[in-house]
Design brief:
With about 130 residues, the chain is an alpha+beta fold. Helix 1 packs parallel to helix 2. The strands form 2 sheets. Strands 1-2-3-8-6-7 form a 6-stranded mixed β-sheet, covered by helices on one side. A two-stranded antiparallel sheet has the order 4-5. It contains 2 helices and 8 strands; from the N terminus they run E-E-E-E-E-H-E-H-E-E. The longest helix has 18 residues.
Length: about 130
């Protein structure tokens, strides 16, 4: 059975999608960008500020679905400039512990709201 996941602790959808969809014990997390949930404004500063905001947003959606970042089994990272890849690794290590999820990092031309990073993922929960 499909369950739509929504929390006010993460940015509301800016398009025709849900924050996450749970099907059985699998949760498909929509891409998060560096929007601050309370204001729906982009976190300002260098990319590290937005990376932290993205992981905080993902964490809020994971919790709303009954899990945590540690339950993520796959992450897809989209960057407009791969020069920021080392910063992503450094900050990701603050939010995840080993064993790390499977992951892809892809350079893209542009992202919603002209941001420089977006991350989506898949979470596997231990129970239904």
């Amino acid at each position: 059975m499909r369950q739509i996941i929504h929390t006010e602790k993460a940015p509301k959808a800016i398009g025709t999608y849900s924050q996450a969809v749970r099907f059985g014990n699998t949760v498909y997390l929509s891409g998060q960008i560096g929007l601050i949930p309370e204001t729906m404004e982009m976190a300002e500063g260098d990319i590290s500020v937005r990376i932290h905001q993205v992981f905080q947003n993902l964490s809020a959606v994971c919790e709303a679905a009954g899990g945590s970042l540690q339950d993520i089994v796959k992450l897809n990272i989209f960057l407009t400039d791969m020069v920021h890849f080392p910063v992503v690794n450094e900050i990701m290590a603050q939010y995840f512990k080993e064993p790390y999820p499977a992951r892809a990092a892809v350079a893209v031309k542009e992202l919603p709201k002209n941001t420089d990073i977006e991350i989506e993922g898949v979470m596997a929960l231990s129970s239904y």
